[in-house]
Design brief:
Elements: H1 15-20, H2 23-32, H3 39-44, E1 46-52, E2 55-60, H4 75-91, E3 98-109, E4 120-129, E5 133-141, E6 147-159
Antiparallel strand pairs: 1-2, 2-4, 3-6, 4-5, 5-6
Amino acid sequence: MNATPGVKQYGVVNAADRARLSGFELVCGFVDGSLPLNTMARTLGYDIVEADNGHIVVVAHPTGEHLNPEGTVHGAFATALLDTCMGLAIRSTLEKGFGSTTLEFKISFVRPIMVETGLVRAEGTVLNCGRRIGTSEGRVTDAQGRLLAHGTTTCLIFSR
């Protein structure tokens, strides 16, 4: 556990902490900084800023580090944001002793993301969550609320 709540740190939540926390407690720990964000969050520069049961918000500023050969932000940037918010939305509904992992997802890109786009917001919301499978949808929007990309995911739910 992070010794300095409110200060974002990066790493991996250890297995003992993952086992003792509900999914909602886990994602709330990412939001308040009491648990470390994964290292991909540092690599891509995203932050998990809101967590409700079944709903997660991730934000990021695209930079020159995220560009593809065409000079637009690489599709993997929006893909990672969507995979994160949709997967964590499902995780937020799980009881202690359960985890989840992405089985499949589909993403549609609506507008190019540019460095000039500024802050982007990815919101994931659970559609259905059963004992073994969960589904959610996500949207990536710009500061004006314009849709940039959207997707759906199916996650496997497992006991730890």
